[in-house]
Amino acid sequence: MHSIVKDVLTPNARNDAEQIAFYERMKGDFIRYEIEIASANLRESLQNEANRCYLNAKELAENHLPAYHPVRVGIMLNYSVFCFNSKSKADNALKIAKQAYEEALADYDQLHNEEMRRDAHALMKSLQNNMKHFAKGPGSDVEEI
Fold it and tell me: Could you tell me which SUPFAM superfamilies the record lists for this protein (predicted)?
């Protein structure tokens, strides 16, 4: 699945920042799932690769999408979960989730598309729930898309 996103979907997105950011997040997600079953000697390189994908997605989203955009909020949600679970850095996950939530909330009133508003609201609620879990530390259940 990772290769389909990498070799087919991403190149066909051309210059659409929203699509590319979404696909970069998907690549990070797939690699994150690989980490769960990978041998110990592969985990670090996979974590680095997933981190690169999430950071690419984050940068594209921050530069081209409003803070409340569901794709941007979803990227931050999943990246914070990656940091919490795969990298065991609960404090970093909390910081990422909190910043994404606060930025989305600050711009939320500008969102007039009802479908996007519902999606953004659901993702922001997941960020809020995860912030509570992140504050408790590793081992807590988290939400993602």
Answer: 14-3-3 protein
